UniProtKB/TrEMBL annotation:
It holds the Pfam family DUF2007. It comes from the Bacteria. Gene3D superfamilies: UreE, C-terminal domain. This is DUF2007 domain-containing protein. SUPFAM superfamilies: GlnB-like. Residues 1-64 form the DUF2007 domain.
């Protein structure tokens, strides 16, 4: 699995997941439960991961829709 991006904004994750799901790409969010450790204030970013084979296509889809990706 490869990381597409990390963010504290849950709306970005919802949008990215909807875009990827619409193209048949499965994505997985990591560090979702870390908010329990930071008191649910959202200082620890979550990561969006995809399978290695879907990575390049997912990058194109998200960047074409204005989502800033990790370099």
């Amino acid at each position: 699995m490869k990381q597409l991006f990390r963010s504290n904004d849950p709306t970005v994750f919802a949008f990215a997941n909807a875009l990827l799901q619409g193209e048949g790409i499965d994505a997985f969010e990591l560090d979702v439960n870390m908010s329990v450790l930071d008191g649910s204030i959202g200082i620890l970013p979550r990561r969006l991961m995809v399978a290695d084979v879907d990575y390049e296509e997912a990058r194109v889809i998200l960047s074409d829709n204005g989502i800033a990706l990790d370099e």
